Automatic annotation (TrEMBL):
Keywords: Membrane, Transmembrane, Transmembrane helix. PANTHER family: MUREIN HYDROLASE ACTIVATOR ENVC (PTHR21666:SF270), PEPTIDASE-RELATED (PTHR21666). Gene3D superfamilies: Glucose Permease (Domain IIA). This is Peptidase family M23. It comes from the Bacteria. InterPro entries: Cell_wall_metabolism_enzyme, Dup_hybrid_motif, M23ase_b-sheet_dom. The keyword Membrane applies. The chain crosses the membrane at residues 27-43. Residues 124-216 form the M23ase beta-sheet core domain. The lineage of its organism: Bacteria, Bacillati, Bacillota, Tissierellia, Tissierellales. One of its GO terms (molecular function) is metalloendopeptidase activity. The keyword Iron-sulfur does not apply.
Length: 223
């Protein structure tokens, strides 16, 4: 009788350690998922082509890195949904090319960033200045209505287009192909650039939300 009791005790003891090892392994996997989520959220805020590519690769392969049981799979799916939350927070306009989001006004590199400029004695840039890489045609970033067109002498034309929740200003245009009141579509040409600022051709681009300028880089992805 004592022998059977000891045997039963040993079995329970092994089961306890087996269960403990199982839960410990699951906990380690859970911690790994949380760490990945935190890293991805931070990378979302950086919002560069490199970080976006990393996020895409991780998102495509995350199902193959972990083999949870049914409860673990459900948790993983909820975690994948959570990956999209920072994008909704950062981009007020829900930037997403696959769902009718915005497109760049021109392909190029940022010449002057948004905000206070270095060595400019407090000068503040309300948008960004983009030097185009190919061509000088400027396109509408989305579907909107032309609200105003203003000629600023040597600075060229400034065009304001009203979108659903914000306005965009396209500056330093040499030619304008639209008129006030026109409805424009995403990717439609609205004008072209000339040569300004000592011969340097660039687009001055602003985005305004609720009466205040915001960083266009948070809305439009430049390749």
């Amino acid at each position: 009788m004592r022998k059977k009791a000891n045997t039963k005790k040993r079995i329970n003891y092994k089961k306890f350690y087996k269960d403990k090892s199982f839960y410990k392994k699951q906990l380690n996997r859970l911690i790994a998922v949380i760490i990945i989520l935190i890293i991805l959220m931070l990378m979302k805020k950086i919002n560069t082509k490199f970080t976006n590519d990393v996020i895409r690769i991780v998102n495509e392969n995350i199902n193959y890195e972990f083999s949870f049981k049914e409860d673990g799979k459900k948790m993983l799916e909820k975690s994948k949904v959570a990956l999209k939350l920072p994008e909704k927070i950062i981009s007020v306009f829900k930037f997403n090319d696959d769902k009718g989001g915005v497109v760049p006004p021109v392909e190029g590199k940022v010449y002057k960033p948004f905000g206070e400029l270095k060595n400019s004695k407090g000068k503040y840039n309300q948008g960004i200045d983009i030097i185009p890489e190919n061509g000088n045609n400027i396109s509408s970033i989305g579907d909107g209505v032309v609200k105003s067109i203003e000629e600023k002498n040597s600075q060229g034309y400034y065009v304001m287009i009203k979108y659903d929740d914000y306005e965009a200003i396209y500056g330093h245009l040499n030619e304008v192909d639209i008129s006030v009141g026109d409805t424009v579509s995403k990717g439609e040409k609205i004008g072209s650039l000339g040569d300004f600022s000592g011969g340097n051709r660039y687009l001055h681009f602003e985005i305004w939300k609720d009466g205040s300028p915001i960083n266009p880089i948070d809305v439009v992805r430049l390749n």
